[in-house]
């Protein structure tokens, strides 16, 4: 039985997203044949469907995602005009990708212990390192939110295949910060460090003779 993640120490968006996905995965994994599990499966299916659309082009999907949040999104983060706010786009991206991540999952895909980039780093030694590093680099170099979303879906699908979890609350905060030119460099710097840290963890945990020395960790 999965246990609740440690409550996050971030801001309102972080907490709202983290607690929402934490409950969804507990209901999905712990009570698959009960009412809560059925509701969670339906919600995750809706989230997966939303991941194929842009938030501005999917107002019904955005409405459903906002409605899923528990606790609700703080009014200060809600949009006021005819376009989604940066916070609404970030929660849409993070929750819809969580739906992709949880497809057929047998274990939690949200954890408060590992960041998104760190999980990507942990994956690199397990797969084709050159190909995967190129994918992560393409994400880092993405110049707009829509192209970044394409790379994120590809990476999250790979993380799902290898059952590697990360903190969706922290992830949502990062996605919101990436659209701010003043904050973007700091997020990308931290992602680069976390990626390198995650890639080293597997190597540090194994004796040298157990490692594939042909794997490129650069």
UniProtKB/TrEMBL annotation:
Q: InterPro entries per the record?
A: CRISPR-assoc_prot_Cse2, Cse2_sf
Query: What Pfam families does this protein map onto?
Result: CRISPR_Cse2
Instruction: Give the source's domain of life in one word.
Output: Bacteria
Name of protein: Type I-E CRISPR-associated protein Cse2/CasB
Q: What is the species listed in this Swiss-Prot or TrEMBL entry?
A: Corynebacterium stercoris
Gene transcribed to yield this protein: casB
């Amino acid at each position: 039985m999965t246990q609740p993640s440690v409550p996050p120490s971030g801001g309102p968006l972080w907490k709202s997203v983290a607690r929402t996905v934490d409950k969804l995965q507990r209901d999905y994994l712990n009570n698959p044949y009960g009412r809560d599990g059925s509701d969670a499966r339906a919600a995750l299916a809706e989230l997966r469907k939303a991941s194929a659309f842009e938030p501005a082009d999917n107002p019904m999907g955005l409405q459903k995602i906002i409605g899923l949040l528990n606790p609700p999104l703080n009014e200060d983060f809600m949009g006021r005009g005819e376009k989604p706010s940066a916070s609404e786009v970030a929660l849409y991206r993070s929750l819809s990708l969580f739906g992709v991540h949880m497809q057929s999952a047998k274990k939690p895909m949200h954890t408060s212990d590992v960041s998104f980039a760190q999980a990507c780093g942990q994956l690199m030694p397990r797969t084709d390192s050159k190909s995967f590093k190129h994918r992560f680099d393409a994400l880092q170099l993405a110049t707009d939110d829509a192209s970044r979303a394409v790379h994120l879906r590809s990476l999250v699908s790979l993380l799902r295949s290898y059952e590697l979890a990360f903190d969706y609350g922290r992830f949502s905060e990062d996605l919101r910060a990436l659209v701010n030119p003043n904050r973007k460099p700091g997020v990308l710097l931290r992602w680069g460090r976390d990626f390198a840290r995650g890639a080293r963890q597997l190597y540090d945990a194994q004796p040298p003779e157990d490692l594939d020395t042909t794997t490129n960790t650069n």
